[in-house]
Amino acid sequence: MSPQSLSRLIGIAVLILVIIVAAASATYVVQPGTRGVLVTLGKVSTDFKQEGFGFKTPFITQIIDVSVKQRTVHMRSPVISKDLQEVQTELKVLYRIPEDSVVQIYQQFQGDPFTSLIQPRVDEAIKEVTKEHTAQEIVQERATVKDLTLSKAKEKIGNMLEVVDVVIEDISLSSNLEAAIERKMVQEQEANKALFEQQRAEIEAQTAVIKARGEAESIRIRGEALTENPEIIQMNIIEMWNGRTPKVIGGNVGGSGMLLPLGTTSANENQ
Question: Is the pTM of this model over 0.70?
């Protein structure tokens, strides 16, 4: 092969290589769950690219992927309670970057935005909440503390980042404080039990009084009815008769006679 042919082949190969590199530099792919930030010669575009394939200016424009997926980060936050007790809390923070904030986050915050923006504000929020609660309330009212912390954190962070949730995974107290809280809870349970027993005794006493009054009223009404209607006694005797012919013992003096079964009297006379 002549030197001219070899030079021509080398030139063609270099041209093809330049075309391939230029074509690759003129395209981009934004990965799923991310948005692309355009940086052209150090200048950030206010628009971002959606996920997928696209074209850009070769060599001078760069596409930076920024994740908009939800992330979960664990953090520890020591706090002081209302009764001046030190409490260790372990939190799990769920957050994401809204796509409208992708460009602003890339421009204004270096590295992970959680470290620079979310963590200090969540820490500040839970400290503000726990200082209004005693150590025992922090333990017993964990859901309330969590909801208040989430609300305050969202207020402090604003709309630039979305704090999805703040989960209190663990609350650690000193051994002496835990023992004191446990004793207090036992005392409260015993006091509640004693109060319940007292209330039950009062209810039972009131029920007995009401029952006795009812029985006394029933007796009074029956007595008045018998006084006004003495024939009721004869009606009761008739209702209770077993079908055997009675025999009257005694006369009418001093009141009604006594009724005895006739069959029994006859048997006694025969003996």
Answer: no
